[in-house]
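To the structural biology subgroup,

Please find below the input and predicted structure for DUF1214 domain-containing protein, which we are adding to the shared reference set this quarter. The sequence is reproduced verbatim from the submission form. If anyone notices a discrepancy with their own records, reply to this email rather than editing the shared folder directly, so we keep one authoritative version.
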Amino acid sequence: MAFGDDPSDQGLREGWRAFCRQLEAAGEQAFKDYNPANPLQRADAFRFLTQNLGQAFDFALETRDTRYPAIHRFCTPYCKLGGDAADFTYQQAWIDGESVYRISGNRGSARFFNITVQGERPACQPGTDIPSLHDPFGDIPEANIFGHQLQCAWDGSFELYIGGPERAGNWLPTTAKSRKLFIRNGFDRWDELPATISIERVDMDSPRPLPTPETLVEAMGWAGNFLESMMRDWPDHSYHHSPAVDPDHVNAFPGTAANEDSDRKRGRLAASLCWELAADEALIVEFDQHSGFWMMASMGAFFTSMDYLYRPVSHTPARTAMGADGVVRLVLCAQDPGLHNWVDTQGFTRGNLIYRNLLSTENAEFRTRLVKTAELDAVLPADTPRVTAEQRRQQLWTRFNAIRRRYAM
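Predicted structure (tokenized):
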């Protein structure tokens, strides 16, 4: 048996070759101007590509059939995508507007939990000429439910129905344009656990059909477009189209924070700072503590979370220490300065710092100051919380163990 013995051979080979050409083109984006020309960040670009190469066909093929839905965890400590935050977990499930689905499981204890029905993905965002972000993003939120709105049993167990006629209890509507569920857990304390859930179509009565050659060729096209557009859109899409991101004025937050209707459905307000630091520099970021659930996390050039499994690259209220003035002070730099609220840049020279305020529209007022790392002790308040080498070691072990619990690693 050889090539050409089956009528589908030619289509499969052409589809695969086209996918490989797109993969090659995607790799060329590693050298874009927005990615600093240093060894660590050039390597990180290819790591971003290879991580998502590993899940491209999970999106495009394995979970794609909406009649046989599956919940796919598309961001982990070993796979980053889409401006992922270090203290979120992200999952999605492809759905349609005709079927009825049931999600069941346990709410968990994460401070933030949200399930959103996502609708169409238009060529441009409604009312603008801004092109939509690459698939599977860019779709429009239609309906959502937060963790505090779920009706749960005493042990946290629940069922949530998606689509079909309105029903009592936990239910989310769909429309003819509904296409996926977007599921997020957001964590504050290290002891919080994510929701554990599964999904099925309620009237499923037969096994999932095996993929045909036509299905595979279509999946190859989807996966190739995903990888090529992913490498093209990050960080360019945010840099060119988001008023809350200003790459031309580094080390300061723009005056505008994202607070569109779609963000309200997702339950967040976001602001972004583009940082650029030399090896001997540190950036001090300050804002007044407030009662909201905020997150601050550092990302690389492609808007992917930094190494949150091993490094202190993110902070939340429960894990942040303050002095007597009630001001949150975070310090970004490459070397450990012995400060409690250190944000490790992991040796990168440029990246992005993302602030998220969840379940609130209150925007913080940020103050930033660029200093030499050697000057930190002189410019920070005397009561700025500090840590010993042993305390840092314990911090890192606590982080490591908590992240492993979140992902059942």
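Summary notes: The CA atoms of residues 47 and 194 lie 26 Å apart. The first helix runs from residue 9 to 28.

Regards,
Lab coordination
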